[in-house]
Design brief:
Bound molecules: guanosine-5'-diphosphate, 6-O-phosphoryl inosine monophosphate, magnesium ion
Shape: globular
Structural class: alpha/beta
Number of helices: 11
Strand content: 15-25%
Number of strands: 20
Radius of gyration: 21 Å
Length: about 425
């Protein structure tokens, strides 16, 4: 068996949670492979709404196993809070929520360092979610980190103290930043008890044995490819590899085990936090997209920056990920628009190009747009592709043609069942 992958092709918040929750019923295991509580994945079904940060989006599908892989960074405080929400909703997560022993832990002082580092950057700040992601991955690659499996070691307290002391001395290089360390530390220690009760596994053996036994596995990405530490809009990125290659590292599987790669894109584009965004609309149209799309962060509540879909950007992330099918979400957000636009190329220094330049941060990029007529009607109740209004079908066909990957899913609303599933056919059909 192979592992199928779902990941975001833009700057995050493409609707990964919704699509994973929908597809989960066809799988035995859903596994998160990177990121941490900077993620906010929204699920809506039966009139209820849940936002998941660390727990994989398969948790609401009874019987399915959910693995938090070694590539994920875990904050026990956020995870314990999520578990309380699951308990309130009557979800039986016992034995169904598994933690990889090699996943790293976010300490309170990692969050403290995140806040102090962002503060010190002033105008150059990344717009981090301040969940301690950067400092935790720094300790991982710096070989100082603490991992889930360390919790049960006899020297855990000692190692915690050593790392904390190191963080406190690092904090001295920054201007003072408010942080209730003692309070946060107490919550952290209490939350460790919740973690201790969860099942821990050697994730790499767990996944490979499951594959050998013919289990169907879906890897759930967090963030988006344009936030990838290597290929995103550096330094305005997150600290993990968000692309398909991250699945191998973050779960412990070899590249030949990757099956379908489902890339998700909104029918337009958003970004939250600082950094370049070539098609951003800092005008009334951008405001309209934000209002129609309810574009406010699921983790921080910050307004998301909005703009038209960016085809050179998507071609780039499709290339990086080896995308085999596309899911286009939030197409209903465009319902009221008289005209829709898509950037088909960039103009840089007077030259037209399809490729993202090395210096995307400081070099002026002028997108070249193509306009498409809107459909100006609701898509409610539409369950088949053929029922979509002709201008919507034309827009989707144009995207497919430009991106050279078949669109197999079209999401028409936040609820689980508002999804049109199309058989995988040759592009443009
Ligand atoms: P994720 O991080 O990729 O899982 O996405 P988020 O949950 O952060 O943001 C996506 C937002 O759009 C959430 O509020 C979803 O409920 C909502 N959403 C997902 N799909 C659709 C859709 O097709 N139409 C509309 N209108 N909203 C959607
Ligand atoms: P999901 O999984 C959108 C952005 C932050 C910031 C940058 C670095 O819900 O799509 P970090 O906290 O990682 O240090 O922040 O990355 N960011 C996201 N933007 N969706 C996310 O996750 C994000 N996770 C991080 O806004 O610009
Ligand atoms: Mg999100």
């Amino acid at each position: 068996m192979a592992i199928d992958v779902i990941l975001g092709l833009q700057w995050g918040d493409e609707g990964k949670g919704k699509i994973v929750d929908y597809l989960a019923s066809s799988y035995d295991i859903v596994a998160r492979f990177q990121g941490g509580p900077n993620a906010g994945h929204t699920l809506k079904f039966d009139g209820k709404k849940f936002v998941l940060h660390t727990v994989p989006s398969g948790i609401f599908r009874p019987g399915l196993l959910n693995l938090v892989g070694n590539g994920v960074v875990i904050d026990p405080i956020t995870l314990a809070a999520e578990i309380r929400e699951l308990e309130k909703a009557g979800v039986n997560y016992n034995g169904r929520l598994l933690l990889a022993r090699k996943a790293h832990l976010i300490l309170p002082t990692h969050r403290y360092l995140d806040a102090a580092s962002e503060n010190a950057k002033g105008k150059a700040k990344i717009g981090s979610t301040l969940k301690g992601i950067g400092p935790t991955y720094m300790d991982k690659t710096g070989r100082n980190g603490l991992r889930v499996g360390d919790i049960s070691r006899s020297n855990f307290k000692e190692r915690y103290q050593t790392l904390k002391e190191k963080h406190l001395s690092l904090l001295e290089i920054y201007p003072p930043t408010a942080f209730a360390l003692e309070e946060e530390e107490q919550k952290w220690m209490e939350s460790l008890e919740v973690l201790r009760q969860l099942k821990q596994v050697d994730g790499e053996y767990f996944i490979n044995h499951a594959l050998r036994d013919g289990k169907r596995i879906l890897a759930e990405g967090a963030q988006g490819s344009m936030l990838d530490i290597d290929f995103g809009t550096y330094p305005f990125v997150t600290s993990s590899n968000t692309i398909t290659a991250g699945v191998c590292i973050g779960l412990g599987v070899s590249p030949d085990k990757i099956g379908e790669v489902i890339g998700i894109s909104k029918a337009y584009c958003t970004r939250v936090g600082s950094g370049p965004f070539p098609t951003e609309l800092d005008n009334a149209t951008g405001e309209r997209l934000r209002a129609e799309g309810g574009e406010f962060g699921a983790t921080t509540g910050r307004p998301r920056r909005c703009g038209w879909i960016d085809l050179p950007q998507l071609r780039y992330t499709i290339m990086l990920n080896g995308v085999t099918q596309l899911a286009i979400t939030k197409i209903d957000v465009l319902n009221a628009f008289e005209q829709i636009e898509a950037a088909t190329a960039y103009r840089i220094d007077g030259q037209s190009t399809q490729e993202l330049p090395y210096d995307i941060c400081d070099q002026p990029i002028e997108p070249v747009y193509q306009a498409y007529p809107g459909w100006q009607r609701s898509l409610d109740g539409i369950i088949a592709y053929e029922e979509l209004p002709a201008p919507a079908q034309d827009y989707l066909r144009a995207l497919e043609k430009a991106l050279e990957v078949p669109i197999t899913m079209i999401s028409t609303g936040p609820e689980r069942n508002k999804l049109i599933v199309k058989a995988k056919r040759p592009v443009g059909v």
